[in-house]
Amino acid sequence: MYDIMEEEEFEAVELPDITVELPDIACCFCPQAEFNGKSDSLFFNDGVRRIDFVLVYEDEDMKEIDKNRTFQKRKQRREYFEASLMKMGMELEAARSVSDEKLLFVKVHMPWDVLCTYAEVLHIKLPIQPNDLSTTSSPFNFLSCITRHFYPSEDLIAKETEYFTAPFEKDRLEYFYVKDRDLFFTPSMRSRMAYYILSRAPYEVRGNIKKFGVTKLLDGGVYKAAYPLHDCRFNVRSKEDECPNERYLLYNEWAHPKSFYKMQPLDLIRKYYGEKIGIYFAWLGFYTAMLALAAIVGLGCFIYGYTTQETSTWSKEVCDPLIGGNIVMCPQCDKECTYWRLNSTCESSKKLCIFDNYGTLVFAVFMAIWVTVFLEFWKRYQAELEYEWDTVEFLEQEEQPRPEYEAKCNHERINPVTRVKEKVPYTACGRCIRVSLGIGTVLFWIVLILASVVAIIVYRLAVFFSFSTRLQSDLKELEPFKEYVTAQMATSVTASIISFVVIMVLNILYERVAIWITDFELPRTKTDYENSLTLKMFLFQFVNYYSSCFYIAFAKGKVVGYPGQPVYLLGKYRNEECDPGGCLIELTTQLTVIMGGKAIWNNIQEVLLPWMKNLIFRYCTRVGSEKVIPRWEQDYQLQPIGKLGLFYEYLEMVIQFGFVTLFVASFPLAPVLALVNNLFEIRVDAWKIITQFRRMVPEKAQDIGAWQPILQGVAILAVASNAMIIAFTSDMIPRLVYYWSFSVYPYGEHSSHTMQGYINNTLSVFDIQDFSNKISLSYFRYRDFRYPPGHHRQYEYSIYYWHVIAAKMAFIIVVEHIVYLTKFVLSYVIPDVPYTVREQIKREKYLSQVILHETNLKLVTKRLKPLGGDYDQPNQP
């Protein structure tokens, strides 16, 4: 029975008679060596054995250990853990800190035999032969004299040789392409294997309970840090002959502001940080490049709206003193609000024309097709990277279980594939309970978000009511409504800011809950863990970020009744109507506040805070200029990478992707803002991980994981969302209906369509005598399509209303079907894997079969020859 208990549980247990059985090693302490004075050395003190990982702990005083049970327990576990590592073949060497004598750095080295063993365990693919397939030349090679300036310098970052690879097998070492044993396994491979061992080395055995894993030792304070080494300083080239200076090259050719216009050196990123980091930056770069096209079209749409705002017929009618100035509108609230003239919303009407025009319709359809092209071409590009980075056959069964999963395996079951008994951490009933608890908790938090949205709606109503009461005493009868427009805009902006603050607070709280639920569910592999956490976090973030936007787009102002019979919320507040300029302006304001605030907050949290922490830490641990700080201690002074790694980077970009696609019909500048943000995001993320954080443990990854189906789901939802925004939030459909159905002036053969009279036609009439507060007017107008007073169906929906509703539904159905059909055709026409990549994969599998597996058949035939028979042709049946 294996179990990993929380550190708090360890400390709560009395340990008077603990006897720790160490492995059969003469000395349980790793040997110590004095620092050799080489600041960028990546080797043990002998200069031969490479450092593959570093453990850091604080050396407690013996007197404190005798008095404090916690210190004694930590010392015992550390000794047992280090002894276990040495028994597993690792070599250790300790060095005392230069700046703090209490700190000790344990350097970990993996000998050749250990590397070969665990390379086979982890199915690491290594070269067997140089790639002998000819590469097709690009038709744009004649532009290389121009485009080469946008790529990293080949003199500094040389193009890597392409090899056919195969999963490593220790017994067939002679068939692999080994030129130099010291360089055969890259530093990132070595670090990955070292971390695999560290995650499974035991640190305590009590009865039949075995506790293991460096992660728990870090959580319990036994070690203060564990990390692989950067190869040099980022801003100074190392003078050590063995140092590749890859960090220095990445900083100068990738993260430095002077290289902002250059393409990313993805192969070097992958080589230095591993495939998981490489695939993230590849996706971010591809997404940013595709955004450039969307940004150009969106900017053109915005410029078109901006230049036509003064010439649009409906805007001119609103601003005309003889038209809009003579139209008296219904009060926006009960009792306290006064009547107002339509021309007081002249500026709001002009602003609405910037975003609500025919160009927006074209842009919404364009973005629906753009998102399909983006996802399809990303699949192709991702397939190329999978082959180049040897992750084509990175299947789930090859991924090793997490240590936390292995430690809880105390139940048995029959494997449905092998029919052999295996250990599992829970029964089918236990798994059902865990999953149900997780689903229930996520639903509870979603309901909590919706409750916060309702609370903000009540805030908006109450604040607008308060503004109206304060302004009532200063307004004269039929005074222009500018003060109320200002009040409504102030209410909208403050509500958006409060909504953003609530979003950020709920994010912080839910993050802890989501991690706790996922830990409780106990997924088998790290990929399963990340996918489960990703789904929970995105579902929550989706509701958290987008719920207020969906409310403004599809609910606000839709159920308000009409004068005399308004709809009330909570029986007290009259249900809020759209801004006099329309709900589209308010939706644009909400998107601007959330997108802008989110970008500012993320930069503060991801860049400014780590930089300040490192600055303070360096100031507190500064040493004299005559002392040389070793490489491992320089890295310790950097910030640690969080447990979730790139999760928040992906989440930030996917949420942005939702803003760009889901609501682009209301805000065509969203792709422009996203493009500008991402151009900085790439370099800021690069600068951050290279200069401010310790080197991450390299991890294998085949694709972007659960984010791929999430992006596809958002793309499908975006089509319906934008169609409904154009149909129900903007005035596009009512204008088109009026243009084609109600605005024909029959002058014989010169019959024409015009938008003149649109404003008057789309405002209903209400008899003012139905109100108790009488003034010297006979009627006023309100936004709706109802029969006028005196009609036998007065205040009921008119035939125009049903024409508009029919047109809206027809528009949604037609646009969705056209776009979905286009998406289907594009996804069918564009293959997910390029033809050349498929051929290379087939070639590689053939070579792997011939070189590695047919050798066994040859050995068998040689052994069987003395028994008789002709076995000279091993491929014959």
UniProtKB/TrEMBL annotation:
All residue ranges annotated as the Anoctamin dimerisation domain in the record: 43-266
InterPro entries registered for this protein in UniProt: Anoct_dimer, Anoctamin, Anoctamin_TM
Biological process according to GO: calcium activated phosphatidylcholine scrambling; calcium activated phosphatidylserine scrambling
Keyword annotations of the record: Cell membrane, Glycoprotein, Membrane, Transmembrane, Transmembrane helix
Topology of this chain in the membrane: Multi-pass membrane protein
Domain of life: Eukaryota
An example Gene Ontology molecular-function term: protein dimerization activity
Family that this chain belongs to: Belongs to the anoctamin family.
Gene Ontology CC: plasma membrane
Residues annotated as transmembrane: 280-306, 358-378, 442-467, 487-510, 533-554, 653-676, 704-728, 799-821
Name by which UniProt lists this protein: Anoctamin
Localization: Cell membrane; Membrane
Repeat keyword on record: no
Pfam families (alphabetical): Anoct_dimer, Anoctamin
Domain Anoctamin transmembrane: 269-844
